[in-house]
Amino acid sequence: MKLLPLCVSLLAVLAVSGCDRIDPNSPLGKRKAIYQQMLDVKEDLGGMLRGRLAFDPQGFASGAVTLDDLSRQPWQYYPEAKEAGSDARDEVWQQQARFNELARELEARTAALVSATTSGPLTAAGVAPAFQQVEDACEACHKEFRNY
Fold first, then answer.
1. Which residue ranges make up each domain of the chain?
2. Residue 86 CA to chain centroid, in angstroms?
3. CA-CA distance, 30 to 81, in Å (whole number)?
4. Does the annotation list 7 as a binding residue?
5. How far is CA 10 from CA 14, 17, 119, 143, in A?
6. Fold for domain 27-79+86-145?
7. What is the DSSP letter of 23?
8. 141 marked as part of a ligand binding site
9. Least confident piece of the model among 5-19, 97-111, 133-147
10. Do residues 110 and 73 touch, judged by C-beta distance below 8 A?
11. Mind listing the pLDDT tens digit for each residue in 72-124?
């Protein structure tokens, strides 16, 4: 007899807890997934440069190409108006020219990182400056347009 109320309560809790999830097929869900992939790749590359992971020249070069590809993807998933649940500040939509400028800057920096992996022998010291410029581009946009 006590099992039925417990099951009903558990079912209600599970139903309510699923309501705050982001639809992975929504523009917000798609760009968050891309940003998470970018973060994962960037953490691996940074780990190689900071000694947390062994430096693997082929792995670094491959990661740079992946990061460059990902850097061009999230912008298409910014709708005309801000959607609920977005971490972006209202300024993304109010200052689109500046937002787009910073997006192009990131794309240029990731392309430069790929270029740095193709010239000469690939060393951590040789690609570190280009990687730092990618991190700086990410930070510049986050400072202006992301709510923390």
1. 27-79+86-145
2. 14
3. 16
4. no
5. 6, 11, 59, 41
6. Four Helix Bundle (Hemerythrin (Met), subunit A) (1.20.120)
7. P
8. yes
9. 5-19
10. no
11. 999 999 998 888 888 889 999 999 999 999 999 999 999 999 999 998 899 99
Give the mean pLDDT of 24-47.
96
In the numeric block, the tokens 């953490």 are attached to 43
In the structure encoding, which two tokens stand for residue 34, read together? 């891309």
One DSSP character per residue, 50-68 reads TTSS---HHHHHHHHHHHH
Using H for helix, E for strand and C for coil, what is the string for the chain? Answer: CCHHHHHHHHHHHHHHHHHHCCCCCCHHHHHHHHHHHHHHHHHHHHHHHCCCCCCCHHHHHHHHHHHHHHHCCHHHHCCCCCCCCCCECCHHHHCHHHHHHHHHHHHHHHHHHHHHHHCCCCCHHHHHHHHHHHHHHHHHHHHHHECC
